[in-house]
């Protein structure tokens, strides 16, 4: 049986190759759950990408603090998985929808 870390590496490589036809922002959005894990991905989403800076909209203040504390790791993983040059990550609170 293959160790889980080896499986993740294979999946990351396969995902990176399959994303090449997409725009940079779409590649980053597809890479987000792989880069940060499912639990964290459910609380943030790629909201934009401009000149190397990724904007992530975050669902609540606790997750915002968590993601900010992991900024450099998330930046590195997003760039590696999506195969996009990421120079910075900007986190912001997700805008609440008016009802």
SSE map:
Layout: H1 4-18, H2 24-36, H3 38-41, E1 44-50, E2 53-58, H4 61-69, H5 71-82, E3 88-93
Parallel strand pairs: 2-3
Antiparallel strand pairs: 1-2
Helix pairs in contact: 2-5
Q: What would you note in describing this structure?
A:
The protein contains five helices and three strands; from the N terminus they run H-H-H-E-E-H-H-E. It has a three-stranded mixed beta sheet with strand order 1-2-3. Helix 2 (24-36) packs across helix 5 (71-82). The chain has helices at residues 4-18, 24-36, 38-41, 61-69, 71-82; strands spanning 44-50, 53-58, 88-93. The chain has 99 residues and is α+β, with helices and mostly antiparallel strands. Strand 1 and strand 2 (53-58) form a beta hairpin.
List keywords for this structure.
single chain; three-stranded mixed sheet; 54% helix; 99 residues; globular
SSE series: HHHEEHHE
Average per-residue pLDDT, rounded, comes to: 86
Radius of gyration: 14 Å
Strand order in the sheet with the most strands:
1-2-3
Strand content: 15-25%
Helix share bin: 40-55%
Describe what is shown at a glance:
The protein has 99 residues and is an alpha+beta fold.
């Amino acid at each position: 049986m293959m160790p889980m870390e080896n499986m993740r590496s294979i999946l990351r490589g396969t995902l990176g190759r399959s994303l090449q036809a997409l725009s940079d922002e779409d590649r980053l959005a597809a890479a987000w759950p792989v880069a940060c894990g499912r639990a964290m991905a459910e609380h943030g989403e790629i909201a934009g990408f401009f000149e190397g800076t990724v904007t992530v909209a975050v669902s609540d203040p606790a997750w915002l603090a968590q993601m900010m504390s992991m900024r450099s790791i998330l930046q590195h993983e997003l760039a590696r998985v999506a195969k996009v040059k990421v120079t910075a990550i900007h986190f912001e609170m997700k805008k609440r929808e008016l009802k």
